[in-house]
Amino acid sequence: MLSNIEVDNLTVNYTAKNHSFTALEDVSFSIEAGEFVSIIGSSGCGKSTLLSILEGINTPTKGEIRIDGKPINGTGTDRGVVFQHYSLFPWMTARKNIAFGIKQVKKDLSKSERLNIADKFLDKVGLEEFKDKYPSQLSGGMQQRVAIARALAMNTDILLMDEPFGAIDAKNRTILQELLLKLWEGDGTQEKKTVVFVTHDIDEAILLSDRIIMMTANPGKVRKEIPVPFERPRNRSELVQTSEYGKFRNKLINLFYGDIAEKIGGNEVVL
Ligand SMILES: Nc1ncnc2c1ncn2[C@@H]1O[C@H](COP(=O)(O)OP(=O)(O)OP(=O)(O)O)[C@@H](O)[C@H]1O
Ligand SMILES: [Mg+2]
């Protein structure tokens, strides 16, 4: 089933040593069922905080997030997560890490079915030869690919991804972006999904998303919601050469860096 998300007046204060810090303030936006939304904003603007609340491992100070009208209450099997920092179990091999993830959401599958799905996804992320390796035997980028394979193999209604491709080389990044888009759209074996995708990469956000939510920092707020005007399927190499793409990209860059320029007393960036 496809799920919609409503973020409603979310405020998150962190308190440490009698000092309170507002990470997110009055953040509100909605994501339609089946929509692919990217969140962009400078470091520290609260993107991971927002995802931790969506995941259900953190609670807001004020406001709430609802999934299909129901306030989030803890983690759920409707949500798959790729964390900003790789998060594999060090005592499990790559395929066991993935099979374990699948077990959490698909209790009816047998062990061999789970391992088969794990192998299929290791193949999709180009790591079939490494399936019996432990995380410590894999590079950082490879560990992140296993974590991505795990989240995709879980086939949840909602995917929460926190800079999932940040540590991954350019070639594999392109392959993974295509794979993610294919699974998001539904490919016969998987249903269409709702995706919340955090990235620092403006081109990645344009290529993948229906809509981009730009945030500002201190405190974290929504600066602007920007629909991506390009039809799908998007052909990466053709699209990036069009003048419409260049103009749209510049508009986003100006918004993004304009925020920083304001803080340092400079002008908006003109490219
Ligand atoms: N557990 C915590 N206790 C206190 N402050 C925290 C905690 N977690 C995050 N913060 C602060 O809240 C702010 C938002 O952090 P968050 O990790 O959500 O930012 P982010 O947008 O994901 O940044 P980045 O792009 O660097 O990953 C930061 O100023 C951070 O220092
Ligand atoms: Mg973060």
Task: Give a verbal description of the structure.
With 271 residues, the chain is an alpha/beta fold. Helix 2 packs parallel to helix 4 (140-153). It is globular, with a radius of gyration of 19 Å. Strand 1 and strand 2 form a beta hairpin. The protein is 36% helix and 24% strand. The structure holds adenosine-5'-triphosphate (ATP) and magnesium ion. Adenosine-5'-triphosphate is lined by residues 14, 16, 21, 23, 41, 43-49, 84. Residues 47-48, 84, 162 line the site of magnesium ion.
| Large-scale geometry | globular
**Mean pLDDT over the full residue set:** 93
Number of helices: 8
Helix fraction, binned, reads: 25-40%
Oligomer: single chain
Distance between the termini: 43 Å
Low-confidence stretches: none
What sequence of helices (H) and strands (E) makes up the elements? EEEHEEEHHHEHEHEEHH
Bound ligands, named by name, code or SMILES: adenosine-5'-triphosphate, magnesium ion
Q: How do the strands of the widest beta sheet line up side by side?
A: 6-7-8-3-9-10
Percent strand: 15-25%
- Count of extended strands: 10
Helix/strand layout:
Blueprint: E1 5-16, E2 19-31, E3 36-40, H1 47-55, E4 62-67, E5 70-71, E6 79-82, H2 94-105, H3 111-124, H4 140-153, E7 158-162, H5 170-185, E8 194-198, H6 202-208, E9 211-216, E10 221-227, H7 236-239, H8 243-264
Parallel strand pairs: 3-8, 3-9, 6-7, 7-8
Antiparallel strand pairs: 1-2, 1-4, 4-5, 9-10
Bound molecules: adenosine-5'-triphosphate and magnesium ion.
